[in-house]
Amino acid sequence: MSLFKKREEDLPELDERLERMKIQDEIKSKEADIAEKEAVISQLKKQYGPNWAKRLGVGKLTDLTTLRSFLRGAKQGLTKQYSGAAPALNPGDFRGIRRA
Fold first, then answer.
1. Domains of the chain by residue range
2. 57 Ramachandran zone, left/alpha/beta (phi>0; psi -120 to 50)
3. CB 37 within 8 A of CB 44
4. Measured distance CA(64)–CA(37) in Å, rounded
5. What is the end-to-end Cα distance of the chain in Å, rounded?
6. At what angle do helices 64-83 and 11-48 cross, to 10 degrees?
7. Are 87 and 96 in contact (CB under 8 A)?
8. Cβ-contact 74, 47 below 8 angstroms
9. pLDDT tens digit string along 3-18?
10. How far apart are CA 17 and CA 81, in angstroms?
11. What contacts 60, CB < 8 A, 6 or more positions away?
């Protein structure tokens, strides 16, 4: 048992403390989202060059989940799109062509 009893906080003080903690939590989560978005954008710049937004067709208001999906799967999506083309349209496929 301690020598000094902790003073009980009354309800208005607790409410004020709770609101302060909620606001601090929101601020920290926003800062983390901004930092993550900046990191994803720097990775996209590294992969696709300085005009990455134009190449990927995204605007300024694109959300973080869309940017993450471009970081993971844009290249995979493009390769799947071209690999599924018909053999006659695929310039790297020489099956069915006779030699002269």
1. 11-83
2. left
3. no
4. 6
5. 99
6. 30
7. yes
8. no
9. 666 778 889 899 999 9
10. 55
11. 53
- Could you please report the per-residue DSSP string of 3-32? SSPPPPPPHHHHHHHHHHHHHHHHHHHHHH
Please report which confidence band the pLDDT of residue 81 belongs to, taking 50, 70 and 90 as the band edges. Answer: low
Q: Which residues contact 40 (CB under 8 A, 6 or more apart)?
A: 64, 67, 68, 71
Structure tokens at 37: 């978005």
Which pair of structure tokens corresponds to residue 10?
A: 């009354």
47: closest CA among 68, 79, 75? 75
Hunting for tokens 């978005």 — which residue is that? 37
User: Above 70 in pLDDT, residue 21?
Assistant: yes
Cβ contacts of 68 within 8 Å, gap of 6 or more: 40
Whether the per-residue pLDDT at 92 is higher than 80: the answer is no
